[in-house]
Amino acid sequence: MKRLTIFSIFYFSSAIFFSACGGGSSGNDSGLKTTTSTTIKTTTTTTTTTTLPILPILPSVSAITAGTAIYNKVATFTVTGQNLNNGITVNTNDACTNLTEKPGGTATSTSFSCIPTSVGSFNIIVADSVRGGILSQTSVAVPFPQVTIVTSMGTIIVELYPNKAPITVSNYLQYVNEGYYTNTSFYRVIKNAVIQGGGNGAGTLHSPIALEPPSVTGLSNMRGTIAMVRTTNLNSATSDFFINTVNNNSSSGNNLDTGSGGYAVFGAVIQGIDIVKTIEATAVDSNSKPTTTVTIISASQTNSINVTTPAAPSGLVATGGTNQHNLTWNAVPTATSYNVYASTTAGTLGTRYTGRFSPLNITNVPANTTSYYTVTAVNSAGESAPSTQVFATSSP
Fold first, then answer.
1. CB-hemisphere CA count at 13 Å for 150?
2. Model pTM score
3. Which domains does the chain possess?
């Protein structure tokens, strides 16, 4: 901005005039008079000055600290640094929505909240809002959402896949987070097929959702997966769900992937598959209703547990019977199934049989046959070390 400033400078000049009345050298000079006259001259000088704008001190960022991020739950993070009040912008590229600055921020620390809407990770980018340019950025991990289902027979943890079935996961989590499943039950058990639950909750039943079939999501009705119950109307699923206790896909005679239009899988059991098998083994009436109520005490979205390779099963016992071998072993909480190895030679694993559970009855064994058995636990992270090997001999 330019300002025009005017300065005025004054100069003073004096002139003295002498005049005489009478003359001669007679000394008659009493009429001598002195007169002073002043003349004022004015000079004007113009000066141009430039005033630069006062720029704010540059903001700087020393750290971005994020807490635990849970899919579809409010996450918070804090930006620390200097002069943050002089202009920063924060961006998550819409991977964490409803981005909001929390009250109480200072020049050295400001907190924000947002809701992660995708799994994997999202970036927090802090930039200088005045001059542009990134000041700092960090990546925040967002694990697959998990739901802990506490039942009267034990606890089951399922992991959900919103990247594959976003509509179905969103619907299920809505019921979970509203507490809809509290004190409902697994009201239907079909052995070697499914356990079904989640109906008749005390909360609001929301509108049915569109079917996300296995042919679209790529999620198959395999043993241990969770899927939505529906009527003959493809787009009728609401709150009811089921857990597959066996492979109900193209590898079996009960193909829920394509039969009747398919059933929407949206997650899998990652802990407590033995509880699922215990529920499956409960006694039922002629309508497949358990004779002893299997209560769903609660279902809640919980912090994700890290899935690691399970421990080796312990307590393996093998006994022989008439044309059969019987195996039992202790459950491994993080296992989703077990592999059983059978060999005719001690010290070798032999043939592997996948997807087995304790107790296991092996039939049609020729009389007086001795086999050596080893069991491993399996989950999405891998297969455990083998258990201690035991043997059994069938009787005639």
1. 9
2. 0.77
3. 2-50 (no CATH), 60-142 (2.60.40.10), 146-302 (2.40.100.10), 317-393 (2.60.40.10)
